[in-house]
Amino acid sequence: MNQLLPLITRTVVAAATLLVAATAAQAQGVTGSADAGKKKAEMCIGCHGIAGYQNSFPEIHKVPKISGQSDKYIVSALTAYKKGDRKHPSMRGIAASLSEQDMADLAAFYSAQAGKAPGDAPKTASAAAAALIEKGACASCHGANFAKPIDPTYPKIAGQHADYLYVALKAYSVEGNNVVGRSNGIMAGIAKQFKPAEMREIAKYLGSLDGDLQTVPQSRFR
User: Fold this and answer.
1) Which residues have C-beta within 8 Å of that of residue 150, sequence separation ≥ 6?
2) Burial of 5 (C-beta count, 10 Å sphere; 0-12/13-18/19+)
């Protein structure tokens, strides 16, 4: 198996490079306004503006930290919900109501709220977690410290809620479900290598790292 890891890593990097090129080719060039996004974020703060707020679908987990994600990733994620590539009913309903300008404005607002940037080297993982991270070639796309992805359309995952990371990773392995799952050829291939317990181990380690993602409480929840 160890002999296959370099091949898996090269395959993931090659596929990621192709996806980056395709994403760049499809870019619409819409410029977002953080000030406009602040006004439009009213629909978001009920979940993403409350520290520790939990979602009960498809299982109980904390809603993700989105303050500090790159603007391009936020637009990419919202677009995936709108298209149905991400099948979360609530998020799909919200994303369906957004124009490209709305998405760009929200992305500008949330991307400007990054916390303190982490260092280049994350803390040492346990032997079990390190082996799983290497098997999944996670650093190939998300960066050596998991907070500087190779392309801004990919998420920062260092310091993200571990229970959310687990649910998200598991969603990529789901097929044939109308309300649960995520369509992404790269992540599906990676996720299907792991058992649920292994996904939890990966998520636990990544969630323990320093990162610049955070939940910024909005005024009505302070």
Assistant:
1) 16, 20, 140, 141, 142, 143
2) middle
Parent domain of 175: 2-18+30-221
Contact yes or no for 69/110 (Cβ under 8 A): yes
Task: Compute the C-alpha angle 121/173/186, nearest 5°.
Answer: 55
Query: Which candidate, 100, 81, 55, 75, places its Cα nearest to that of 154?
Result: 75
- Of how many residues is the chain composed? 222
Residue 23 lies inside a defined structural domain of this protein: no
Q: Which residues of 12-48 are buried (b: 16+ CB within 10 A; e: fewer)?
A: beeebeebbeeeeeeeeeeebebebbbebbeebbebb
Number of domains in the chain: 1
Q: At what angle do helices 127-135 and 5-26 cross, to 10 degrees?
A: 60
Written as six digits, the tokens of 195 are 């058992």
**Consecutive 10-residue averages of pLDDT for the chain (222 residues):** 49 48 51 96 94 94 98 98 96 97 98 94 95 98 96 98 98 95 96 98 98 89 54
